[in-house]
Specification:
The structure is a homodimer. Chain A contains 21 helices and 3 strands. Chain A is mainly α. A 3-stranded mixed β-sheet of chain A has the order 1-3-2.
Chain lengths: 503, 503
């Protein structure tokens, strides 16, 4: 072992501690949404604060910076010593440096302030949303916006104040690039959605009462088919489906079993979270504690949930295998409906006010609308008080309907109340990455549909594991997509995918 | 706020952090026994190690010691400054000093070593116990014993090397005191057990198949009657019943629902854990982070589980209320049996090889046997290899039966494999404290039995809360017992209790 390797090992040990503290904070969230007694909520905040503050302290500790500084120049990012380090280890050091630099830009008090304001604003949002009371929410959002603008300044930018926020969730992405991508996507989607809009569909049979234990059994059957290892994940129920991972060997997902809308609210959600979960389970645990055992970006994470949820889980071949099973499990709803009817109904294209209930054709338009507004808010060209009008205008222009109230309009999402500006674009980027990956995947396996129709899905997990998951943050999101698909990013794959499916 | 109050507040903030880290480590244990995917076991060790090491670092940090040192003299324990501090706050500082002193006696590497050897020895124990292979287990236990003897030296003692180990679980208790207590108890119990031994009881109806969901419903009904606040606890199932508390608002208990022995393996176990749980829930959360929000000792903790499990949960008046309910829930077993038969059968006195299945008459003899052996091991008068012979001899002399193998003999308990020397005596002490508390409690409420027979139990929780729980570590265990019962500790209460119940 060289001296360099020794330093590397010391850094990894520190990284493990940081990552363990961060994952414990996620643990507290998982428990809060699943099993925590309600009365423990006050103490829960203290637990999360303690863990996050400790993680931040460790990440910004002089000791870590000094160790990293022995291997890599903090100012230039050039390696000083790398004898005996493998490529993955060098990548780990490269990314670790970036994490430390970013963490040091935000003082601990500022991070605490952000978290505190997040909790408070979410509470106001939760109270005002049901009353459609945007006026009361306005000053709170204005205050929060100021703090987010300060965050942008602290993180620093060259071109646009929105860039560093975007960079948090999709490193390397900028307003300049995104404006172009979204402009062309919008031009495609608006007329396309009108063209493929569903007509005269009877959707009644999709709704009903579904026995919860059976629903959960179905979910587990699907997750198992997707390739989950029984010994390294859990599926529980919660109010909103989510996936949190503490380690590649401990992935916790939730789904909603109490629903009248089995497919959209449960099955699709489970498959979606399953996609996230497989990414986390597919990270290289030997590198736990380093950025190699972390997903490359939120947008790429979303590509993994979307490829499973939409490209696979809403395909006809997938349901050729699973539809007979749900017909048997829930005969009241599905016995008398053909696979074709089911497939068409599940993939119906209809303008909807609510993003999370949107079909895959309209979905990105919901995202673009939010992106345009939040970019304006951050740069100051849009005022908080004007959000409702702008929202309603854009909704009509892009999707063709207008909300009757703020709850189903500009107050529907929790993101802004959480201070999550810069996050929304990842939903659309992930959707497009998914289509590009799907194009390559189906190209590699000429018998793709046949495999799916027989319930074979493991090969997809393996292909994604081999071409995406295992790399963690070794490559940038942009590079990773090129490596996996052989082509640079293009929205044309998504457009082609929609045309093939809906025309 | 005086300067002293400011320092006190700073200490409390540090205490909160330490306590939060410690409680997170308990959280990891709770999850491990309830919901953790099996494959996550490796990472779980890293999580626990990280948390425990951090808690130890914070507890032994110079900064904390300096702050405490401004209020209290570290050498003498005399207060330097206490203007504006309330009694409870002074007690908190007094106990905090003791915790820091104790923590500093054991270096971090030693603590880690203890934990590591614990995990390893438990694994050997788990493998060798089913094979009755004490010979293979011997060298491992010998090594561990050496480490425990070193721990005793590091902690320091005046009279007996067992004293500092005992002090960990029952502060202030010594071999000198305990030898006296146990000698007189043994003299009472051995002839008493022979005298009250049950004869010709048909116990068949106690065993059967019990529907798990109904069992859990019964458990929750009983816990609710005991006075649990629905919003601050959970009851789950696990292989062994236990209670872990993270905060007075977050108490997690488990029970066993898969059993053929409803009363002993489930109901009594649930009530036992419920007693522990009520103690934790009854601590003063305003003092969280200080020793005031901690149970005074393990022995006192055991008194809370024992008073509920035995004195209350195995009394006739308790079952006057609950027996009709289980007759209705499980008619196959209980419909045709009278309350008298049930009560007599549940309280049958029979020598048993296994401590945890022992009746309350023989129970303390099991504990005394272990105490005598582990005291001998620590002082060096007994060798590990001689344990089986000594065990079997004592078992015959005290309880009148002899194990056929080590699994039901000297290898039955996990404690020694965990390095828990000094812990066993708390089971007997707790049993005796419980009887003394019960004597006072029944004296205070002349209509005690009538209340129980009507299912009213809240007043017990309130009395224990008022007289025991809320004080935390404000008083020593000895003082607390005097305050609660008006009398110094005496084993005569336990003897009187047994005589009244069994003669």
């Amino acid at each position: 072992m060289t001296k360099t390797n020794e330093i590397y090992q010391q850094i990894v040990e520190m990284g493990k501690q940081i990552r363990t503290l961060q994952s414990l904070s996620l643990f507290m969230e998982w428990d809060q949404e699943t099993f925590m007694p309600k009365g423990a909520i006050g103490f829960r905040s203290l637990q999360k604060q303690t863990l996050e503050a400790l993680a931040h302290q460790h990440l910004t500790a002089t000791e870590l910076q000094e160790l990293l500084g022995k291997l890599i120049d903090f100012d230039t990012g050039e390696f000083i010593k790398d004898d005996g380090l493998e490529d993955l280890q060098k990548a780990a050091i490269r990314e670790f440096r970036l994490d430390v630099i970013k963490a040091k830009k935000l003082p601990e008090s500022f991070v605490k302030n952000l978290a505190k304001m997040g909790s408070e604003t979410v509470e106001v949002w939760a109270q005002t949303k049901p009353k459609n009371d945007f006026a009361t929410f306005t000053p709170h959002l204005e205050n929060f916006l100021k703090l987010v603008q300060e965050k942008s300044k602290l993180l620093g930018y060259e071109e646009h104040p929105y860039d560093p926020l975007l960079d948090e969730y999709e490193p390397g992405m900028t307003v300049k690039k995104l404006d172009k991508i979204f402009a062309s996507l919008k031009d495609f989607l608006i007329p396309f959605a009108k063209k493929v809009r569903s007509k005269n569909l009877n959707t009644d049979f999709m709704y009903g009462e579904f026995e919860e234990s059976k629903v959960l059994e179905l979910d587990k059957r699907i997750l198992s088919a997707m390739g989950f290892d029984d010994s390294t994940f859990r599926l529980d129920t919660s109010n909103h489906p989510f996936c949190l991972s503490f380690h590649p060997t401990d992935v916790r997902m939730t789904t909603v079993t109490k629903t009248t809308d089995l497919i959209a609210a449960n099955v699709s959600a489970t498959i979606h979270e399953g996609g996230h979960g497989l990414y986390e389970a597919g990270l290289d645990q030997d590198y736990f504690g380093t950025p190699i055992c972390q997903a490359v970006s939120i947008a790429f994470h979303e590509s993994q949930s979307k490829i499973w949820e939409c490209c696979i889980g809403q395909s006809k071949s997938f349901w050729q295998h699973f539809y007979p099973q749900i017909q048997e499990m829930f005969p009241k709803n599905f016995k008398d409906q053909s696979l074709d009817t089911f497939y068409k109904t599940m993939n119906r294209v209809e303008p909807s006010l609510i993003r999370i209930y949107s079909d895959e054709v309209h979905y990105c338009l919901h995202v673009i609308l939010r992106y345009e507004i939040e970019k304006g808010l951050i740069e100051g060209s849009i005022k908080v008080k004007d959000i409702p009008d702008i929202w309603n205008e854009k909704m009509e222009a892009y999707i063709g309907i207008k909300p009757k109230n703020h709850a189903e309009g500009c107050m529907q999402d929790i993101h802004w109340a959480w201070g999550l500006f810069g996050y929304f674009p990842t939903y659309a980027l992930g959707t497009m990455y998914a289509a590009q990956l799907f194009d390559t995947l189906t190209g590699k396996f000429p018998d793709f549909d046949e495999r799916l129709s027989q319930g074979h899905l493991h090969f997809i997990k393996e292909w994604l594991g081999e071409n995406v998951h295992r790399y963690g943050r070794q490559y940038s999101s942009e590079e990773l997509l090129v490596r996996a698909t052989g082509k640079p990013f293009s929205s044309s794959f998504f457009e082609k995918y929609l045309e093939a499916k809906y025309l």
